[in-house]
Amino acid sequence: MCYWVGTKKVREEMLRRLQQDPDDEIAQLFYKTFVGEAQLSFQEHYVAIGKSRPLLSAITRNGNGLQFRNMHWGLPWKYTDKKSGKEYAREMINSTCEKAFFVHRDIVLSRRCIVPLDGYYEFFHFAGEVYPHFIHPAKGIFYAAGVWDEKTDEDTGEIVPSFSILTTPPNALAKKLHNNPKAPNGPRMLLLLPEDLTHEYLRADARKEDLKKLFQPLDDKLMDAWPTARFLRKEFSGRLNSEDVRKRVDYPELFFA
Q1: What tens digit of pLDDT does each residue of 158-171 get?
Q2: Which end of the chain has the least Cβ crowding within 10 Å, N or C?
């Protein structure tokens, strides 16, 4: 669930924000990083698939200010069972917010990030078939909250930053669309923050209690969704990086869903 995201319209929205308010800190930062000084290349995707560890552009805290960093989606995680001594390792593409202070206890209070998105994809199950849906903001863009860390590649010595997006229980729209009966945690959705709460999430002095208050599903009135082409099928190969993945496709059978 929630392993497919888009960023294609983020640049347009950030520049609109800057024109509307030249003092907008995040829009200023975006312009400086990706346009003015061109320090980095903004990672634009019609659809980025989490399991392929794509690069995405994220906002992190840098001392007393903020910065954009390009990081891999999928945070390496290891856990040693105290009773058995057995070590478990996996990549956390997404992480449940309810377990964030256990799974990510070493970083959740110091290394948080915001990933600007123009939408994400969920797969609706109906009558034995699966129908992808593009979930997008009713206005503007999404701000997905996550945690990040960096590891040193043992072969190259390169420092590799990566992140995991947090998830919450669903709002009404997400609950309807994320109905996979095999989902281990039941219906979920990305932790999407209203624009005015992004700074609260990135505050250097944020405490556990402060962050828990933000672990809420976004109001479904701020979201919309429509069905799209089945872009994971072989016949769609070669068109993933195109507008085709998010065009509306009306399936007659879904009118009865």
Answers
A1: 889 999 999 999 99
A2: C
